[in-house]
Amino acid sequence: MKNDPYKDKLTAEAYQVCRLAATEHPFTGIYNDHWLTGIYQCACCEQSLFDSLAKFNAGCGWPSFSSAIKGQVKYLSDVSLRMPRIEIQCDHCDSHLGHVFDDGPEPTGKRYCVNSLSLLFVSQNENKQ
């Protein structure tokens, strides 16, 4: 992206994920096995996206959530791997987060499969970690 204001804010790896829709390798992300209480924000614009209360262990290698904070995530059709998927992006800055699948726990039945590199975590006592 030309003149992207997030290019200087993000690491090269995070830029690839957030702005160019790459995917981090499974089981490598900082938030895959992260269970503190707080809010997960967009790594680009710091918009709140997921509450830790919605996080669960899907065993897929990426942080997984059963729901997003209402109105903070947008959904786009993705056929880049020649199979239909739903891409999720930050509704504020269009950062690529990952994908959402219909194989999550009740009551939503959703699994928001998210790249750790697209997230920041703010603990319940508001200290970034």
Describe the structure.
By secondary structure, the chain is mainly beta. The protein has a single domain (12-123), classed as Metal Binding Protein, Guanine Nucleotide Exchange Factor, Chain A (Beta Complex). The chain contains one helix and nine strands, in the order αβββββββββ. It has one helix spanning 12-20; strands spanning 38-42, 48-51, 55-56, 64-65, 73-78, 85-90, 96-101, 111-114, 119-123. The strands form two sheets. It has a six-stranded antiparallel beta sheet with strand order 3-4-8-7-6-5. It has a three-stranded antiparallel beta sheet with strand order 2-1-9, with no helix packed on it. Strand 3 (55-56) and strand 4 form a beta hairpin. The chain is globular.
Q: Report strand order across the widest sheet.
A: 3-4-8-7-6-5
Query: Which shape, going by the Cα principal axes?
Result: globular
Domain module tally: 1
Our measurement of the CA-to-CA distance between the termini, rounded to an integer number of angstroms, reads: 28 Å
Give the helix level as a range of percent: under 10%
The oligomeric status of these chains comes to single chain
Q: How many helix segments?
A: 1
Q: Strand percentage, roughly?
A: 25-35%
- What is the CATH architecture annotation? Beta Complex
Which fold does the CATH topology refer to? Metal Binding Protein, Guanine Nucleotide Exchange Factor, Chain A
The CATH fourth-level homologous superfamily? Peptide methionine sulfoxide reductase
